[in-house]
Amino acid sequence: MAGILYVVGIGPGEEAQMTPQADEAVRQSQVLAGYTVYVDLLRERYPDKEVLTTAMTQEEKRCRLAFECCAGGRSTAMVCSGDAGVYGMAGLILELAPEYPEVAVRVIPGVTAACAGAAVLGAPLMHDFAVISLSDRLTPMETIWKRLELAAEGDFVICLYNPSSKARGDYLSMACDRLLARCSGERICGIVRNIGRQGQEYRVMTLRELRDWKADMFTTVFVGNSQTRRIGDYMVTPRGYRHGQRG
Amino acid sequence: MAGILYVVGIGPGEEAQMTPQADEAVRQSQVLAGYTVYVDLLRERYPDKEVLTTAMTQEEKRCRLAFECCAGGRSTAMVCSGDAGVYGMAGLILELAPEYPEVAVRVIPGVTAACAGAAVLGAPLMHDFAVISLSDRLTPMETIWKRLELAAEGDFVICLYNPSSKARGDYLSMACDRLLARCSGERICGIVRNIGRQGQEYRVMTLRELRDWKADMFTTVFVGNSQTRRIGDYMVTPRGYRHGQRG
């Protein structure tokens, strides 16, 4: 009998932020699959698992190996940082699923970096928001910039995933330049690095300061909307409850 | 000594989707505060707590009572469905916090309905997405429509919170009419109702079908982007991994 393929959002990293449902899915699995960094976060916690890792760019190969483990009778947990569906592996797994009709797939959600990072910064996402990845590995850069500009025009709070990498060291600055053409340099922004992991750090700053911030691939970036304020150390987007105002 | 005020995202409802960190925050609290529906989800699980509920529209009163419990020495968990920051109470609590400097606030994130609902439908959020609430209680309707239209123009996947209520029975239809002016009627959409609770149901449908769907306040709505497809029973937005295509 074929095993079950679980696509599991493990949350930002620490055990306390992984749901019991996600924990149970990993426990039920014989094989732990995923990008090396995330699998390494879990190996100590689940020492009895067979481990299946591939490099970051070999997503399809990794997914097919996971399906083959399941087809061979071993349930497999394909683990994703944060949520399983937000820039995670759920989509590719379900695209491939019709080729492996004997394998049942279950997607287990998790706490995504937008929510986990927001909690560290305070409450930046209280109003309508847009989540945009700055990685152009799979998306044309012009699409990314267009979305960023439309999100600013709509006064969405914006959460940026993958703000930087070795090959894209200046993308966050380029994004900020586009935002600065539309928003005040005093717009409140925030960054969180290593959310829920050792070395977690955060900072609330202005859009002008964000432009020169050196983000790395472990950083999540938040750009407030026109109402977002700094309250003490926190980044807070009011929703309008307080004075009954509309908007 | 003052108690701690925890603002806790409990996830969509079932215990298996509440993080250990959220569970621990509730256990550490003497008082359980929140909107009645969410507190009722937790009363059985935490029977020894003092309960503080107010009606849905009395958010500020509820927050002030929670601060006063903490100021009086009792730690309090203000519970929110899904995440604490996505249309939750974290923002208002942090807006009021400077008035209660003796009370420490901690925001505990959770699995928001966008992620939990997406996992039920398959993988609709795999690409950049926008989260928009259709409630005009605190936001002018024209702001909501503008955001919806800009999100469609940017080809974002769109997740709609609060798609309907007794007073706003036709808002989802109105939203779909605006989307139909910009997107094909065949655009793939999905709804999930009672996510992670008894009576959970979901359905993948076209935008044209969504227009006439009777959503209620326990429904979360997903509108795919131009690439979103139906694969078997699932709603899937490809990210482009598979054939190395860009976009």
If you had to describe this structure to a student in words, what would you say it looks like?
The structure is a homodimer of 247-residue chains. With 247 residues, chain A is α/β, with parallel strands linked by helices. Chain A folds into two domains: 4-108, Tetrapyrrole methylase, N-terminal domain (Cobalt-precorrin-4 Transmethylase, domain 1); 113-236, Methyltransferase, Cobalt-precorrin-4 Transmethylase, Domain 2. Chain A has eight helices and 13 strands. Chain A has helices at 20-27, 36-43, 59-71, 90-96, 113-121, 141-153, 171-180, 207-211, and strands at residues 4-9, 31-35, 50-54, 76-80, 104-108, 122-123, 129-133, 157-161, 188-193, 201-206, 219-223, 229-231, 234-236. In chain A, the strands form three sheets. The first copy, chain A, has a five-stranded parallel beta sheet, sandwiched between helices. In chain A, strands 7-8-11-9-10 form a five-stranded mixed beta sheet, sandwiched between helices. In chain A, a hairpin with a 2-residue loop joins strand 12 (229-231) and strand 13. The first copy, chain A, is elongated, with a radius of gyration of 19 Å. The relative contact order of chain A is 0.14. Mean pLDDT of chain A is 93; it is low at 241-247. The interface between A and B is large, with 78 and 78 residues.
